[in-house]
Specification:
Layout: H1 3-31, E1 48-49, E2 59-64, E3 79-80, E4 85-86, E5 100-103, E6 106-110, E7 116-121, E8 127-132, E9 142-144, E10 147-151, E11 157-161, E12 167-171, E13 179-182, E14 185-188, E15 197-199, E16 202-207, E17 215-221, E18 233-237, E19 247-248, E20 252-255, E21 263-266, E22 272-275, E23 280-286, E24 291-295, E25 305-310, E26 315-321, E27 326-329, E28 332-337, E29 340-345, H2 346-370, H3 377-396, E30 401-406, E31 412-416, E32 419-423, E33 425-432, E34 438-454, E35 457-462, E36 466-470
Parallel strand pairs: 1-31
Antiparallel strand pairs: 2-36, 3-4, 5-6, 6-7, 7-8, 9-10, 10-11, 11-12, 13-14, 15-16, 16-17, 17-18, 19-20, 20-21, 21-22, 23-24, 24-25, 25-26, 27-28, 28-29, 29-30, 31-32, 32-33, 33-34, 34-35, 35-36
Helix pairs in contact: 2-3
Length: about 475
């Protein structure tokens, strides 16, 4: 063949290889696609998916509500005159946006505006169906086995068909039908504001609002909606206010309360095991080691605070000052402090802090003895040796922070593969989790509270009633 023919043949071959490479890349991305079936991805509310999206994304559609979300509670007080604190943390801000769940091509969300669950086509942004209840739906539905499970302020937990929106069952634990006005709506005195957590064959939720009224923690058969069979119960609870997304470990349920400490329940019986000390608010996540990460016990902290507790033993482990959002993925935690975003080797950090607490306890005991034995040289030597070990730990602790970059306060936080997604005020950003390098950003309308990664899409829900979809 001539030189021209040879070059054309090579060019065609290169184009074909390029097309095949693109097809293989698309196929690889499809193979690693992952659903986001419940609030913050899973029953531990981790906000972490293994799906890796492309580094650069483009907005494909935006859902726009004419009215922003109508939250269950107003924000925090502007100041605490007693303690002199300003900019207090909100303890019950669990529904500032239309958080989404997603399975395959479908995107779902609950609305506090029109009292409904919506299904949107994730490819086009067009609405496929709407299912109405008699009051606000504050959490997105949980998707399991072709069904959607959610609660409403009308006092019912619902189960509907995910494709047709046909109602399968509804359940309320109390026959009392008293209602009360709230934010322009009429709601049950026992609204379902925990969402519905599905694990195995059971669906868990609570009906609760006022601490002077009885509350009900429920586990019903996910198929029939009845509290029948092993593990099912309707457990009456007194002097509690169960609100915020439920969390679950293998044997326990964790239920936030807003202005009171989260409560741990036996998942098999609904019996109360105890509360988590120094904890509060409705922002909670549960690590694989059953460490509960949550907000402070009250609004009096001068700075944003996260508490870490042993969920099994229910004792306090760590306090992180200057932050109110965290992601945990295996051995690393990602958090913001001030205007910085930081990656932390949490396993090493937690171990060092535990060792430091033990040493400080021993040192305090020796200090107490020295008050009566001021000339005891052996005690003085032991005290000094403990002090050296504590100082060594203080030197090693900063080494647990692997990288730190400047980043405005994140409002929403999620992780997909090796990418951190941060929702801010009017902006969503993506960072490489390995080194903190900024990869991408885009404008959004409002504050980005809810982020979800699913089937090639990043969705961002804002306080203005917008849901932005990027691919």
């Amino acid at each position: 063949p001539s030189t021209t023919e040879s070059n054309e043949s090579q060019s065609q071959g290169m184009r074909m290889r390029g097309k095949l490479s693109a097809l293989f890349l698309i196929a690889a991305l499809h193979l690693h696609a992952e659903d986001w079936p419940t609030y913050r991805h899973d029953n531990r509310r981790s906000g972490v998916s293994s799906e890796q999206l492309p580094a650069q994304l483009s907005e494909t559609w935006t859902y726009k509500s004419e009215t922003p979300p109508q939250t269950a509670w107003s924000g925090p007080a502007k100041w605490d005159a007693y303690s002199g604190n300003k900019d207090l943390q909100s303890m019950r801000n669990f529904d500032p946006a239309f958080f989404v769940t997603s399975v395959g091509r479908d995107v779902y969300f609950g609305s506090s505006v029109d009292n409904a669950v919506h299904c949107i086509d994730g490819e086009t942004g067009k609405e496929k169906w709407v299912f109405f209840t008699d009051s606000a739906v504050r959490f997105p539905p949980t998707a399991a086995n072709g069904r959607l499970y959610f609660g409403s302020d009308d006092g019912y937990a619902y189960c509907i068909d995910a494709k047709t929106a046909d109602e399968i069952w509804r359940f309320r634990p109390i026959a009392d039908k008293r209602h009360t006005p709230s934010n322009g709506k009429l709601i049950s005195l026992w609204p379902c504001r925990t969402g519905v957590l599905v694990q195995g064959r059971l669906a868990f939720f609570a009906a609760s609002m006022l601490p002077w009224e009885a509350s009900y923690l429920c586990a019903v058969d996910a198929i029939s909606g009845k509290p029948e069979g092993t593990g099912s119960f309707v457990a009456k609870q007194n002097e509690v206010t169960l609100q915020g997304a439920l969390l679950a470990s293998s044997d326990s349920l964790y239920v936030p309360q807003g202005r009171s400490a989260p409560i741990v329940f036996d998942k098999a019986t609904g019996k109360r095991r105890g509360s988590i000390p120094n904890a509060g608010g409705t922002y909670c996540l549960l690590t694989e080691e059953d460490q509960l990460i949550s907000g402070p016990k009250n609004q009096k902290e001068k700075n944003q605070v996260l508490q870490v507790a042993d969920g099994t033993k229910r004792n306090h482990l760590l306090t992180f000052q200057g932050t109110n959002r965290m992601l945990v993925n295996k051995s690393f935690a990602y958090l913001h402090q001030g205007e910085s975003l930081t990656a932390l080797d949490r396993v090493s950090y937690t171990a060092l802090q535990a060792e430091k607490r033990q040493l400080l306890g021993k040192q305090a005991a020796i200090s107490k003895q020295l008050k009566n034995r001021k000339n005891d040289q052996s005690l003085k030597t032991m005290h000094a040796e403990l002090g050296k070990k504590i100082q060594e730990i203080n030197t090693r602790l900063p080494q647990c922070f692997k990288w730190k970059i400047r980043c405005e306060h994140p409002i929403g936080f999620a992780m997909g593969g090796n990418t951190l997604y941060v929702g801010g005020n009017g902006m969503v950003m993506a960072y490489n989790a390995s080194n903190g390098e900024k990869q991408w950003s885009a404008k959004i309308d409002g504050k980005g509270y809810g982020l979800a990664i699913s089937n090639g899409r990043l969705t961002v829900s804002t306080d203005k009633g917008r849901i932005h979809c990027f691919r």
